[in-house]
User: What shape does this take?
Amino acid sequence: MRPVNTGIGAASGAAAATGNPTGFFAAGAISGVGNTAFNGGGFGQIVQNGFVGGFTGLAGGFGGRYAFKLGLTFNGFGINSPFLKGLVAGGLGGAGGGFSGGFTSTLITGGDFSDAWNAGLSGANSGWKLAAPIGAVAASVQAHRSGVNPLTGKRYDQPTSTVDEFLDVARDYLGDDFTIVKPAYGSDLILKSADGLRQMRFDLSNPHGLPPHVNIQQFHPRNLYPNDVRNIEDFNIHVYPKKH
Amino acid sequence: MKETEITRLENEGRRLFNDGDYKEAIKYFDEILSRNPGYEYGKGFYDKAICLEELEDFQAAEKNYLKAIEYWPEDHTRLSGYASFLYLHGDTEKAFKAHLDLLELEIKQLGNKQSEKTIKAINELGERIGMSVKAINAEIDKVKQA
Assistant: This one.
């Protein structure tokens, strides 16, 4: 195991959690520099990816921070949860920054339009993955500091969250036609999107050593062969409904 | 939201897996298993299994898939992962059976909403082991009516 690499993740997360622009930049830059160094990148590449990561983190952090204050509508539904607003807005900000960075730098360095377009798409993909969690953390920190529950968007001093409020959050993330699953073992409840690629798992009665929490997960189909049934996990974010 | 040490290990292991650094990822999943094998109902075994599969250590991968399923037999991710593993690297009859088990879970949990791929894979695997279309459909109907 690479203890230093774990440290990079921790340092990046801690920087994002500061909730300020320097922290957002540092979060992205730490990831960019650390991952490039561990993958054997040269000094020039490390510096370049550090800056790219930094600006992507900045886009994600600002996206998340301002998403907390702004209204956000997705698939016709208003998103109330600061965490989800941050995830979406941070991811979109990072994807946009990543696309323009990849597209522009490829054109500048002599690539043709097709190469630039592909580099842009690749940059958007990396930008989304890097910036979405930073946006989610930034929005959650901002909400928490304002006395608002990051998951439900309700104030802590308001009555305890109701099932209806959770369902609103679920619709925001999963779409209106999600399925409710109550397994006999494991999680208490799973809400699954219609395509099966997003889910919210409630680990309340047996949270396996953590405080009671909700897992917010996203997957993508592996598609290694035509009827491949396996999905690959993109992220599993633990959200704790109660302040602890 | 708060990241604990064990969730950090999980996130880092996943990142390494998605980057293709399977050997390094296993170290993180092993660390999770040594601290708390019941974390996420034994998910560490599944995460380790998919790494071992990529490293072509199929025997160890299968052992870990089965351990993960033993911890949580009704997890779609684990059953679909194991079925896919058998499709690629296992005995075809076992793969056929694993896909039927997956179909049963999908019908039970999702009411036949997400089983299109699974049914296609069952048909393909059934043909590979020499079953007639009628016999394959009978197996699928048996699961649907269970």
